[in-house]
Amino acid sequence: MPANDLALLIDAARKAAETALAYVGGPLDVRNKPADDTPVTAADLAVNAVLHDMLRDARPDYGWLSEESEADPGRHTARRTFVVDPIDGTRAFIEGQRAWAHALAVVEDGAVIAAVVHLPVMDKLYAAARGGGARLNGKPISVGRVDAPARADVLATRPSMEAHHWPGGVPPVTRSYRPSLAYRLSLVAEGRFDAMFTFRPTWEWDIAAGSLLLSEAGARVTDRRGGRLSFNAAHPQADGVLAANPDLHAALLDRLI
């Protein structure tokens, strides 16, 4: 059994990758979830089962929060909880794209203390432990230093650039997009993009792992209004996300509030 939570998450992410990749090119049994009409595949469910069994067997006293699991009432009283998205970017997975990820985190008292985002097709494994920095494939990563929106390359959806979101004026950024929210967060942590933001209510399993990668890489990461992100909430959604180095974060937030 791995001696610490980060090592456990890394092992679990690699096992998840083996499971997901076995479905590539085969039947996916795609269905839409009744609650929100988003797609789920046989691969999502198989990965979820593998992660649940592996992680809960190793840490039976931890709570469990996953996009593909029924609610676990025990997570509200557990000191630590796994927060998991078995496949983040399911639509990309269905379409045969590369940018889908496994996103795994351990939360303690509302804060993420260990995190992994793994993109197996792209051979990228991002990992962080609280106070230990962030790494990509074992090498340290850090956020970029661009401090002005006019020079910033950001990851965001097109609707996020609509004027009604920006009382202080739409920032003159260069916008790009990636289908996995966890990957967007990771790319900012890596310094390949300067910021990311989303203004829709955001599920914890999409952002928990990436939020620690960002903070350990030197970013400021908050909700859309600059509020602190807290995880394992009774209703596990955040009020959007804004992430960038502290100076750029402040410049973007000034236009939002």
TrEMBL record:
GO term, biological process aspect, one: signal transduction
UniProt keywords, alphabetically: Magnesium, Metal-binding
Chain sites annotated for binding Mg(2+): 67, 85, 87-88, 206
GO molecular function: inositol monophosphate 1-phosphatase activity; metal ion binding
Cofactor annotation: Mg(2+)
Record-linked Pfam families: Inositol_P
Keyword Ribosomal protein among record annotations: no
SUPFAM superfamilies (alphabetical): Carbohydrate phosphatase (SSF56655)
InterPro entries referenced in this protein's UniProt entry, alphabetically: Inositol_monophosphatase-like (IPR000760), Inositol_monophosphatase_CS (IPR020550)
UniProt cross-references to PANTHER family, sorted A to Z: INOSITOL MONOPHOSPHATASE, INOSITOL-1-MONOPHOSPHATASE-RELATED
Protein family per UniProt: Belongs to the inositol monophosphatase superfamily.
Protein name according to UniProt: 3'(2'),5'-bisphosphate nucleotidase CysQ
